[in-house]
Design a protein that fits this description.
Elements: E1 2-4, E2 6-15, E3 24-27, E4 32-36, E5 42-43, E6 52-54, H1 71-83, E7 103-105, E8 116-118, E9 124-127, E10 130-135, E11 138-141, E12 152-158, H2 163-169, E13 176-181, E14 185-190, E15 195-201, E16 208-216, E17 219-227, E18 231-237, E19 245-251, E20 256-263, E21 266-271, E22 275-280, E23 289-293, E24 299-306, E25 311-318, E26 321-329, E27 334-335, H3 340-391, H4 400-403, E28 405-415, E29 425-435, E30 444-452, E31 461-466, E32 470-474, E33 477-489, E34 498-507, E35 513-523, E36 529-531, H5 534-543, H6 545-561, E37 587-593, H7 599-610, E38 628-633, E39 636-649, E40 652-658, H8 662-679, E41 681-683, H9 689-706, H10 711-735, E42 739-742
Parallel strand pairs: 1-23, 6-7, 37-42
Antiparallel strand pairs: 1-27, 2-26, 3-4, 4-5, 8-9, 9-10, 10-11, 12-13, 13-14, 14-15, 16-17, 17-18, 18-19, 20-21, 21-22, 22-23, 24-25, 25-26, 28-29, 29-33, 30-31, 30-34, 32-33, 34-35, 36-38, 37-40, 38-39, 39-40, 41-42
Length: 744
């Protein structure tokens, strides 16, 4: 057994929280390397860098990756230009005078909203807005990358690739971009057409951590990819006349922590517990040769500093601290059979590796048991769902007694007021799931989608975790479990009426889900109505609806103006320029003919229309009078609504709606019309043709006003004609029935 001897040239130990996020970086031109701690401290063995610290502004979430490209790049360009004038080429000097106090480096923002950063061979910053690439010391927009390239893990630009690759993989041209991904695939990208071609993929979809392209006469002859779990795949052009590729696969028997290239086919690599080895992929044996380096362990990251002199720098874990070391290795291997120190190190590394593998086996056993339990639970749940579906009856809701599963969605309003004040009322959906223990829904998700019925706009969507079922007992025996939550609905943003669709979601893995649609219902503003208190009823009777409504609406506007929660962002903007209403209707009538209507049917008519969703408190709407309902709607705070039912004649009834705010008045009218149409069968009666003729004429004039070319004049004419048409419509409805009700 052989090893490579190493010598530690320099080292520094630093106290920091976590070494796994501290990648080593630096500048090949200046032969310097450094790491960055989570606290923003530059960790380096160079005296000029050891006391530098990044400005703390903007580093509250820690540092994950740092790339230096500004000053060092410009210095290099300047030196290159001077060497062209015949002067000796010199490296830019770094000030070696080390201050005893920490020096802060102020950070300058070069990009924002960056979601992914590629630093291999060229700096690429990827954000949702697009991609930028560093060229000549400046960031420029690039078409080679896009906002969707966040899965890239390594990349190379290729100017000329061998024709064997073009014919074997059917590549469109010989130049492009080759890149690896986090899911183990290696792609070729045609930059002009942005067409991606899959070259090959790792068997276990392991992340590509390193790519190497080997060239001969400026032509790429070999592509080598290194996977995170130790898989190495290479494709090389053959020397034969027949165009073809030679494929080799190697395996390092441990996960790859860090890797850097020494020369073609030769690499320094840190694997497993952090031991460092020298890899040779091309040798006399035509197989992978790995030679470990002595006196190195727990190396998290490494970087070749000087290839000619065999020097690299590494970040190592040392208990609760990390060590940044500069190491030189001897490229000639020696036998360790007679080296007691090397044998001791080998034994310790082997024991560490065995302990790590044992921990991995235990972790896999735990994951396997968890997966097995989840699979058994899934099978039981799917069987229960199928059983529930078999027991369902078309047109009937699920009940706990009939199917073992019950799901209810109930619109409710809640107020912090114990006296029934209406200005602090909030709207909620009360979701309740009752199920037997056999149906294991714990940990599922519930999707709630609200879609406006009168608009193509996308409504509000909510996703709630179904966690926290509680047992329900009857006579000391657990009968079922219950999950109930109140989900707030922001009626300032959500338009009503709206369709509410609920779906139970079982997540199988990161990409697959099983969806089980549960319910679908329509909600309107009266579903979120709240009965007025007896005190409000008395105030309206004494002072009138207009005065009470005016006071409440003014109070509500002041409440929004002085709100400090950010719930009403436009309140101050609209304070000096409140919107004016062209209509001022406060009362509308809806009349129907009724062939036969008993007193009992008459008294139950209005509670039946308004009672949907209010079965528990419908009596509070009427205050003992079945012919009058008094309520406010959560979407129109401060606007009391009175709905009266009366007999016009033995065969005709009248619904009278009163509200001082016209939009709320028309909204209640629309809801009542819809509910009456849904609840009762109707026949259209014969109406007075003269009155219908006047309404048709007014509607025709309204259409003509909409078609006017002059915008200013047409707007005024349109509003005037709209008001006239609504007045005619209200007059017709006030005098004539619009349908016939048949009570079933």
């Amino acid at each position: 057994m052989e090893c490579l001897e190493t010598e530690q040239l320099l080292h520094k130990t630093f106290a920091t929280k976590n070494s796994t996020t501290i990648a080593i970086t630096g500048c090949y031109y200046h032969n310097i390397s450094f790491a960055v701690s989570e606290q923003g401290q530059l960790l380096a063995v160079d005296a000029a860098l050891e006391n530098l610290e990044l400005g703390r502004l903007g580093l509250s979430d820690g540092v994950e990756q740092v790339t230096v490209f500004d000053k060092l790049t410009r210095t290099r360009l300047t030196d290159s230009e001077s060497s062209g004038n015949g002067h000796a080429r010199k490296r830019a000097k770094i000030d070696n005078e080390c201050s005893q106090h920490t020096q802060f480096i102020e950070l300058t923002a070069v990009a924002s909203n960056v979601k992914h950063m590629l630093v291999h061979h060229s700096l690429v910053l990827i954000s949702p807005e697009g991609a930028q690439q560093l060229k000549n010391g400046t960031l420029h927009d690039t078409s080679e990358f896009s906002a969707t390239d966040t899965n890239m893990s390594y990349h190379f630009s290729v100017q000329n690739i061998h024709t064997s690759f073009i014919s074997f993989f059917s590549l469109p041209k010989n130049s492009g971009l080759i890149y690896g991904t986090t899911c183990g695939a290696v792609y070729w990208r045609d930059v002009n057409s942005r067409q991606d071609t899959l070259l090959f993929r790792m068997e276990e979809d392991e992340r590509i951590v390193f790519l190497d392209l080997l060239q001969t006469y400026n032509t790429v002859q070999t592509v080598i990819a290194f996977g995170e779990q130790g898989t190495i795949i290479s494709y090389a052009a053959t020397d034969q006349e027949i165009s073809g590729l030679e494929m080799h696969q190697f395996n390092v028997q441990s996960p790859i922590r860090s890797i850097d290239k020494v020369q073609d086919y030769k690499y320094v690599i840190s694997t497993g517990t952090g031991r460092v080895s020298f890899l040779d992929l091309k040798n006399d044996k035509s197989e992978l040769v790995s030679i470990r380096m002595s006196r190195l362990s727990h190396v998290q990251h490494l970087r070749i500093l000087d290839r000619e002199n065999c020097i690299f720098e590494a970040v190592s874990q040392k208990e609760n601290d990390i060590e940044l070391s500069r190491i030189k290795y001897n490229s000639v291997p020696i036998s360790i059979e007679n080296n007691a120190e090397a044998m001791q190190q080998l034994i310790e590394d082997t024991l560490d590796q065995l302990a790590q593998e044992e921990a991995m086996v235990k972790s896999m056993e735990i994951k396997e048991q968890t997966l097995s339990d989840k699979l058994a639970s899934t099978n039981r749940t799917l069987y229960a769902l199928r059983s529930i579906n078999d027991k369902r009856e078309l047109g009937l809701c699920n009940s706990l007694d009939s199917t073992g599963f019950e799901f209810t969605v109930r619109p409710i309003t809640q107020s912090n007021s114990s006296e029934g004040c209406s200005l602090n009322t909030r709207a909620y959906l009360r979701i309740c799931i009752k199920t037997s223990r056999f149906l294991e829904l714990e940990g599922w998700d519930l999707s709630i989608q609200l879609s406006p019925m009168d608009s193509a706009l996308i409504g509000e969507a909510k996703l709630i975790s179904v966690i926290g079922f509680e047992p329900h007992y009857e006579n000391g025996i657990e009968r079922h479990v219950v999950w109930e939550r109140d989900i707030e609905i922001d009626l300032d943003k959500q338009r009503l009426p709206a369709k509410v669709s609920t779906t139970l979601i079982m997540t199988l893995n990161d990409t697959k889900e099983l969806l089980f649609p549960v319910s679908e219902l329509i909600l309107d503003d009266i579903h979120f109505a709240r009965p007025c208190s007896i005190h409000m009823k008395t105030s309206i009777e004494r002072r009138g609806l207009d005065e009470i409504s005016s006071r409440l609406m003014q109070s509500y506007q002041q409440l929004k103006l002085h709100d400090r929660t950010g719930r009403y962002p436009l309140a101050r903007l609209l304070q000096n320029d409140p919107p004016s209403l062209p209509l001022n209707h406060k009362n509308v009538h809806i009349r129907y003919t009724v062939p036969s209507l008993s007193d009992e049917q008459y008294r139950s008519l209005l509670p039946s229309i308004l009672g949907e969703g209010h079965s528990d408190n419908i009596k509070d709407f009427f205050h003992g009078n079945a012919e009058q309902a008094l309520f406010t709607m959560a979407s129109y705070p401060g606007c009391p609504v009175i709905v009266n039912l009366s007999r016009v004649s033995p065969g005709m009834i009248d619904f009278s709606i009163q509200c001082s705010y016209t939009p709320a008045l028309f909204k209640v009218e629309s809801i009542l019309l819809h509910r009456i149409h849904q609840l009762y069968m109707q026949d259209t009666p014969t109406m007075d043709t003269k009155k219908l003729k006047s309404l048709e004429t007014s509607i025709l004039e309204l259409q003509q006003a909409c078609q006017q070319n002059d915008q200013q004049e047409s707007a005024a004419a349109l509003l005037a004609q709209l008001k006239k048409t609504i007045d005619v419509l209200c007059t017709v409805h006030h005098q004539e029935p619009i349908g016939s009700l048949t009570l079933l």
